[in-house]
Amino acid sequence: MSSPSPRGGSQLEDPSGPDDDRGAGTTTLTRYQPPSLAASVHASLPRWSGAAAAALGALVAAALLAVADVHVALAVVVGAVVGIAAFVVAARAVEGARAATDRFVTALVTVAFVVALLPLVSVVWTTVSRGLARFDVAYWTQSMSGIIGEGGGAYHAIMGTLIVTGIATVISVPIGTMTAIYLVEYGGDNRLSRVVTFLVDVMTGIPSIVAGLFSLALFTLLFGPGLRIGVMGSIALCVLMIPIVVRAVEEMLRIVPARLRESSYALGVPKWRTIVKVVLPTAASGIASGVVLAVARVMGETAPLLVTVGLTSATNFNPLEGRMPVLPVFAYYQIKTPGIPPGAFIDRAWTAALVLILFVMALNVGARVLARALAPKTR
């Protein structure tokens, strides 16, 4: 006979019996039986349960829109609540209370992500669909000089945007970089460093129109009222760009390992040469990425340029003389004061917005490529 095993199996006795000479000195054999799979595997919802709950919510929202006269937003909210409730109830019935709570929080995070993504998708879709109406060769090669109704382009505004932003970059990057080097490498925790850090924090949060008014007041004091030139817009953008560059460069310099500096000092290298040859090259990828993102941040500013560069329909390549058109101001006035037919002006404004988005996207992609190219090699 077999007797129960302490591990859940059974013991088989030697068939020869205890009195048989052939079985003398032999041991019993144990056959292991694994526990049942049903006891070790917990029940769980299928993978498609989340999609099914979302589909249920969509059906409820569609039914509300078809049957009742409700707003689209209200229908979407009701559908989301119904879908999440069904998902959580099914999880509680199958998986238990703890798993249902986890499913509920996951569903809330997913819904929050979708809600945050909807405005971005809506803006991009609207801008692309409306901006493609005038996204042609003429828009990139012609100005608005002599154009009253249809036709023309934004060549003058595109060139003005590149010139104004380029001057602002040339001024802001050295100032912001050297300020960050002082804060990290020289200032330490002295009073001047604390004051500069406080001012940088304040400048980061000032409204953009304040930067424009500052530039206007500065040039009015120096050259008199009524002046509108491209470099005024560049100075206004510098006020917005410098704190961004300072913060970006400062963070990159702080993550450079201290042992690199100490190794250089141990070899007798001066501090300024250590910064130039060791610290800056190590942080070059992050610095380049931060600078490019700062340029993208100020390229689409409208308020400071409205009061500094003015408006003109002709192409101007001289930032020190005459009004200079830029894309944000060009789009603003195309919408604000449309002519006849108004559709042509509105199409030009939407295409200007699309061009600005393409510029910003190109700068972001360029920042990633540049950061990867300048990243220190590990081998």
Automatic annotation (TrEMBL):
Superkingdom field: Bacteria
Transmembrane region(s): 48-66, 72-92, 104-125, 154-184, 196-223, 229-249, 278-299, 349-371
Region (Disordered): 1-30
Subcellular locations according to the entry: Cell membrane
UniProt KW keywords: Cell membrane, Membrane, Phosphate transport, Transmembrane, Transmembrane helix, Transport
Principal cellular location given in the protein's record: membrane
Topology term for the membrane: Multi-pass membrane protein
One family name in Pfam for this protein: BPD_transp_1
ABC transmembrane type-1 domain span: 158-367
Function comment: Part of the binding-protein-dependent transport system for phosphate; probably responsible for the translocation of the substrate across the membrane.
The family this protein is said to belong to: Belongs to the binding-protein-dependent transport system permease family. CysTW subfamily.
PANTHER family per record: PHOSPHATE TRANSPORT SYSTEM PERMEASE PROTEIN PSTA (PTHR42922)
Protein name in UniProt: Phosphate transport system permease protein PstA
Gene name for this UniProt entry: pstA
